[in-house]
Give the backbone structure.
Amino acid sequence: MVNRMRVIGTAGHVDHGKSTLIAALTGTHPDRLKEEREREMTIDLGFGWLILPGGEEIGIVDVPGHRDFIENMLSGIGGIDAALLIIAADEGVMPQTREHLAILDLLQIERGIVVLTKTDLIQDDDWLDLIESDIKTVLKGTTLQDAPFVRVSAKTGQGLEVLLSRLDEILRDTGTRPDLGRPRLPIDRVFSIAGYGTVVTGTLSDGRMSVGDEVEILPSGKKGRIRGLQTHKKKEESALPGSRTAVNISGLSVEEISRGESVVTPGHYLSTRRIDVFIRLLPAVSSPLKHGIEVKVFAGTSETVALLRLIGTEALDPGEKGWGQLELREPVMVVRGDRFILRRPSPSETLGGGIVLDPQPNARHKRFAETVIKQFEAMLEGSPNDVLLQASLAMGPSPVRDIITRSRLDDIAASQALVELSSEGRLVPLEGTELTFDSDTFVMAGSAWASQELKIKGILQEYHSQFPLRRGTPREELKSRLQVNAKIFNLFIKKLASQNQIVEGGTWISLAGHKIKFDDKQKVSIIKLIDLCAANPFSPPIVKEMQAFVGDEVYTALLDQGELIQVSPEVAFRKNDFAIIEEKISRHIEINGKISVAEARDLFKTSRKYILPVMEFLDASGVTVRDRDFRRLKK
Ligand code: GDP
């Protein structure tokens, strides 16, 4: 049985003793690593691990290299279970202490310990109390406001035991991370190990990964397969969500993968260049956040520049919350609910952060539309039903499975929401009637379907009134007016046809109950035409004459209705007359085995002008086949 290894991260001002403390806690010596590496594949995860008094191993993400760069901290900090906020006793709160604390708060890291380091330098307990009360003021209103304090010295080892048992306590009820069956791992490092090939590391979430699984790298879309997994120094068959994980990937070289991308199961995720977001501006920012500015966005391990469109306001004041849409310069892979940080590119400053509401909005939103803000509110705080419905509304007609992925609900919540929404008609299947959470069935929000239905019927009605003599609207015309792709269009039409609301012909579509209607004048001309035909049923007026007599529109309508049968560009007969022709010719062949053109002509006392097209028409319709100068019945 694999257990998830919990992960903690460090934060704090430069030179406050982070690395020294981690070294003292882990006792991880480079030599030992080297030895292990030689013995067996050991993936250096870029982090250490330590053993808690209770025996549990936990991972520590220490900000590697360039530790004075806050942006490096960001790539490692996502997905940690708890933070150690490290503050040197001789200096107290410094600018980076505040900035790191703000980031932990924006990322909603709920658990942490404030570690007062270098206490060996301060003999005076009153001073330590003073520093601590100062820190408490700074922590107020953040996720760490109730965090315990521990005083340590890495030099003397004082307080280290206490720190470990505090860690044990705060991590005790962190529990498991949701397993949504759709693993993703934002990559923080890519490297290669001789004999094994490409390895990436990161913190796994939303599902488990197993050796042998096919994986996709996003945004690039490249595919590979998991050859090996380690959740710290141990090889595992599977890795659990929430674990620091190293993935050995076959089929892809180191050059084909970059930090900031994600390893995911194929088919579940999409990359994006536009996201809808909830934003919280830090109270301490130097100026208001204005609409239309460029910001740096840090999400997962990715970093990109984005144009910020504020929704519902022109600017956010320090400490304010609001809505926005980010137009990203490079694609990223994020999901609903992901936290991110916004920074000003220059002079660099952490501005705030927020939550991804919709990772794939179809369009730019109207900036001051009430409906948009309502939709944002539902995505931020709504029930699973609201969230699923909003995802469906935002996506339009789509497979159930894609809508659920976008909603980022777990399977149980999603299934329940599906049942409720479909029984209330708020979500409708476009095919079949049953909805299951993992199916490819296309669905649509009930309200969106209702307006689509109205639109289709409106277009058909309009066409019928404009062209009362036509059977229906040409399919292609209806499709282009609806502006949907062929797949969706066919689903719409099939659904309405199955409900007997519309009738589908080969190339046309009509409202159910639509009948071609002639006016009185037209009726009179039709009767006259019928009389003319009746006078010479097998040598009727030619097509051009018929058209001139009743008009082109009426003539076509008579063809559409099947009252006239046109056998060639020149020749047409009344329905019944043609039936007699077909019947007599068939009978003649049955008795005589065959018929010639001359025989057929004599049979109806007509001319070759009429009978030749008839014979060709019967051949083409599969009634007869030609055999030199004769016709026989087609078997
Ligand atoms: P970081 O930048 O936060 O990782 O800080 P370091 O761990 O590199 O430590 C900065 C300096 O403080 C180094 O010179 C350390 O030797 C020193 N230092 C770290 N912890 C202690 C401590 O507990 N006591 C004393 N006296 N010095 C310390």
